[in-house]
Amino acid sequence: MTVRPVTRIPDHVLKQRAEEVGDALAEQLVEDLIATMRASPACVGLAAPQIGASRRAIAVDVSSHKKATTSHGLVVLLDPIVVESSGHEVGREGCMSVPDLTANVARATHLVVRGRGPDGLDRVVVTEGFEARAFQHEIDHLDGWLILDRVESLATDVFRRRVYR
């Protein structure tokens, strides 16, 4: 397992659609995603482009976050897709690849995601609330979208990140 540096804007890998993992062995990528996520304080998810790999892989774990009402623990998905979404809520999001800003982003409140686990087996995750938001955020990274691309107004929906000491 290697903790990799987190890719930040304006790196081009963050703005392009990531390639399918397909049948390729992704063991090292999965290990690095998890290690990097665990080494990053307050991180609830990470996508492969955020560690410089243009592959469709994500890791999400909201189990220790105070806003989480639903949690499937650590979920790693390869080639994930949203198969169903409903509801609508605007909430504040931060992103390790946009470290100095937070933004008000509209997301679905209920979500069904399908992908493949690291074991190669198909997996379906049905979730809601904060965990649904985290999955959507990470899947956005696979399509080259950042929180800044999801705001209605750069003038009213983007904020400098507060630093507490």
What does this structure look like?
- With 165 residues, the chain is an alpha+beta fold.
- It is built from two helices and eight strands; from the N terminus they run H-E-E-E-E-E-E-E-H-E.
- The strands form two sheets. It has a five-stranded antiparallel beta sheet.
- The longest helix is centred in the C-terminal third of the chain and has 14 residues, at 129-142.
- The model has no long low-confidence stretch (mean pLDDT 93).
Span of the ends, CA to CA: 31 Å
Strand content: 25-35%
Structural class, from helix and strand content? alpha+beta
Overall shape: globular
- The pLDDT mean sits at 93
Give the SSE layout:
Layout: H1 27-38, E1 45-47, E2 57-60, E3 75-86, E4 89-95, E5 98-107, E6 110-116, E7 122-128, H2 129-142, E8 158-160
Antiparallel strand pairs: 1-2, 2-3, 3-6, 4-5, 5-8, 6-7
Task: Produce a short descriptive summary.
By secondary structure, this protein is of the alpha+beta class.
Keywords, separated by commas or semicolons:
16% helix; 3-stranded antiparallel β-sheet; single chain; 2 helices; 5-stranded antiparallel β-sheet; alpha+beta; 165 residues
